[in-house]
């Protein structure tokens, strides 16, 4: 039995930049209910949700299509922490009528450092946060969303989607705390 209502998407790091661009397409072009995740800037996240709502109304007016409008929400969570990811996914699915069809893992974190000064880049707390946010968090997010994505595929085969974005900082030396360790002659060449 199909779950009524529009498909539900979650976009981490979704209040600005690439995340916001993806959320716009999902919300306005594909008609999905979208939850964006943010960590620190509630004002920007709420303004973006309002922008999506206004754009939907301007495209669909006040007729029946507008009455059945997708739901747009912003949820604060630090997605470098596993328990926050689990909460974020559960709140998104619950708020989406018991479904989650699309997950975009877009969040990333770094602290810019002086790339030419090795001593500047040995802050262990920065390394740990960078590794948790950029390496472990997408795995935790996929694991937390797995049940919901499997249910989506049971409703409609091939409909569930999980996408993870990454920064070009993984291929170019740019002063990132994580890049400093990874960028060597062989890794650098493999990015091109």
From TrEMBL:
**Family matches, as SUPFAM superfamilies:** NAD(P)-binding Rossmann-fold domains
Recorded source organism is: Phialemonium thermophilum
- Protein name, UniProt field: Uncharacterized protein
Keywords (alphabetical) are: NADP, Oxidoreductase
Q: Name one Pfam family in it.
A: adh_short
What InterPro entries does its record include?
NAD(P)-bd_dom_sf (IPR036291), SDR_fam (IPR002347), Sec_Metab_Biosynth_SDR (IPR052178)
Q: What family, per the record?
A: Belongs to the short-chain dehydrogenases/reductases (SDR) family.
């Amino acid at each position: 039995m199909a779950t009524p209502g529009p498909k539900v998407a979650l976009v981490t790091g979704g209040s600005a930049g690439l995340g916001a661009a993806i959320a716009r397409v999902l919300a306005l072009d594909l008609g999905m209910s979208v939850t964006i995740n943010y960590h620190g800037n509630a004002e920007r996240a709420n303004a973006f949700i309002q922008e999506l709502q206004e754009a939907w109304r301007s495209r669909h007016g006040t007729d029946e299509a507008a009455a059945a409008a997708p739901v747009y929400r912003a949820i604060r969570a630090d997605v470098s922490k596993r328990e926050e990811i689990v909460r974020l996914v559960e709140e998104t699915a619950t708020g989406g009528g018991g479904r989650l069809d699309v997950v975009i893992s877009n969040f990333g974190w770094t602290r810019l450092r002086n790339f030419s000064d090795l001593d500047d880049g040995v802050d262990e707390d920065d390394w740990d946060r960078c590794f948790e946010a950029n390496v472990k968090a997408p795995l935790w997010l996929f694991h937390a969303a797995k049940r919901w994505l499997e249910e989506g595929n049971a409703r409609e085969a091939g409909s569930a989607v999980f996408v993870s974005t990454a920064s070009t900082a993984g291929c170019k030396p740019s002063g990132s705390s994580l890049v400093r360790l990874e960028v060597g002659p062989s890794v650098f060449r493999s990015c091109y």
